[in-house]
Amino acid sequence: MADPVILITGASRGIGAATARLAAERGYAVCVNYLRSQSAADALVSEITRAGRRAIAVQADVAIEADVVRLFETVDRELGPLRALVNNAGILEQQTRVDRIDAARIGRVFATNVTGAFVCAREAVRRMSTARGGAGGAIVNVSSRAAQLGAPGEYVDYAASKAALDALTIGLAREVAGEGIRVNGVRGGIIYTDIHASGGEPGRVDRLGPALPMRRGGDAIEVARAILWLLSDEASYSTGTFIDVSGGR
Fold it and tell me: Which of 36, 85, 182, 190 is deepest in the core (most CB within 10 A)?
């Protein structure tokens, strides 16, 4: 029996890369999607293939519909039928207040974090749905505790985009529950990844981590473990639900 195929968006670094490694360890054939970091994506694919698993790297901007279609068609052609999607690609911009945010910034954030996730989910459902001849599957959307907390003074636009992703998770889960597809979310908290540098504060986790109930920031692998559990048969009766990986925040 062929290895189940997983597509992880934004997988060249951080939570996406940790998820790709763990998925490969657990028997998946992995598509590592990336936007700009070809060298990192290629290195990750080499690491996975050296361990005896199949993996490919595919450049695509999830904010561009044609790129998403090409990404999924490449997976079809080079790996086989898709069984799992992790909507992990996400961006944020410099920390600021709402009264300093312009519409162009909101458009950029939502294009990747919301529209991209919707279009990726659409393509996954078209392949997985038993109503369309598929064999079923699972989708995990990588959200954030910011969706509930709002990220005031930092990036309310990012928080709002993740709240929209949570709504997609709930609505889509109910829409396709009878078609062999489970859809769940993982809300990361203060996690050590490069995304904080994009917001202008590379040391944000070190600043905030000690004030959390668990008194530390989280690691990407801790989020990846929750993602892989939701994708697994151990979560076979879970859909439209969330795991918060946030140290009690």
Answer: 85
Strands (E), the chain: 5-8, 29-34, 55-59, 82-87, 137-144, 181-188, 242-245
CA dist 155 and 199 (Å) reads 8
Distance CA 103, CA 92 (A): 14
Q: Which residue type occupies 176?
A: V
The stretch 146-152 carries a mean pLDDT of 96
Residues 212 and 166: beta-carbon distance below 8 Å: no
CATH no. of 5-245: 3.40.50.720
Of 100, 112, 177, nearest to 142 by C-alpha is 112
Alpha-carbon gap, residue 247 to 249, rounded angstroms: 6
Q: Could you tell me the CA-to-CA distances from 18 to 15, 154, 182, 221, 240 in Å, in that order?
A: 5, 26, 22, 5, 23
Band (pLDDT 50/70/90 cuts) for residue 206 is confident
Q: DSSP readout, 61-108?
A: -TTSHHHHHHHHHHHHHHT-SEEEEEE----------GGG--HHHHHH
Instruction: Give me the residue label for tokens 């990726």.
Output: 120
Domain ranges of the chain: 5-245
Residues 96-112 pLDDT 10s: 999 999 999 999 999 99
Q: Which residues are catalytic?
A: 158
